[in-house]
Amino acid sequence: MKYDELKKILKELSSFEQLKLYSIPDIDLYMDQVTTFVEDKLGYLKRNEDDNALTKTMINNYTKAGILMPPNKKKYSKQHMILIILTYYLKQILSINDIQRLFSPIVKSINSGENHDKDLENIYNDFLNIEKNEVDEFVNDFHSKLKSKYESENGENKDEDDGINNLIVIVIMLIIKANTEKRMAEKIIDKFFNNED
């Protein structure tokens, strides 16, 4: 039954362990250690098992694009790791150029010698709180939408003859919401994160 399968997918989507700040190594890591760490901790987010969560090429490209500071003696700090993890999430929706514009003020000041450990840690902790709240809110909202589509008023499952049509409508609903939120994020970046600053 599609309704039960959708509830199972929803449960899987919301059953994950957040990568807390204290779990990010405080010691500098070589690139291989960075890719292994990210694969180990964020691999569950991959759509396909064969995909790579992070590759050496990606890290090099992020550095060239200005999303990351250059490594110090081929080692990556906790600041690098935070930016890499945030980039991993953001690149699912935003272009690399938009991510660069977003992180540019912090990366430029770190490159000029300013210490932004606390700023990045605060951003990361805010990210974790937002992620938890948004996932919880999404699960509750989506579950109630599923319920209205697939359950009658007395709680019994409705006939699923139009199951494929319901699934198409559900996917369209999710994409419209995601697209609206993406456009808002892009407008904020365009308005407040100019490369000329």
Describe the overall structure:
It is a single chain. This protein has helices at residues 2-14, 31-42, 56-65, 78-90, 96-111, 117-150, 163-192, and strands at residues 29-30, 75-76. A two-stranded antiparallel ribbon has the order 1-2. The longest helix is centred in the last third of the chain and has 34 residues, at 117-150. The protein is 65% helix and 2% strand. The protein has 197 residues and is an all-alpha fold. The chain has one domain (2-192).
Question: What would the keywords be for this entry?
Answer:
7 helices; mainly alpha; two-stranded antiparallel ribbon; single chain; about 200 residues; elongated
Q: How do the helices and strands follow one another from N- to C-terminus?
A: HEHHEHHHH
Rg, Å, rounded: 20 Å
How far apart, in Å, are the first and last alpha carbons?
54 Å
Helicity level = 55-70%
Strand order of the largest sheet: 1-2
Number of strands: 2
| Major pleated sheet | 2 strands, antiparallel
Number of helices: 7
Task: Look at the structure and give the mean pLDDT.
Answer: 91
- Report strand %: under 5%
By helix and strand content, what is the structural category? mainly alpha
- Counted up, domains total 1
Enumerate the spans where pLDDT stays under 50 for 5 or more consecutive residues. Answer: none
Shape: elongated
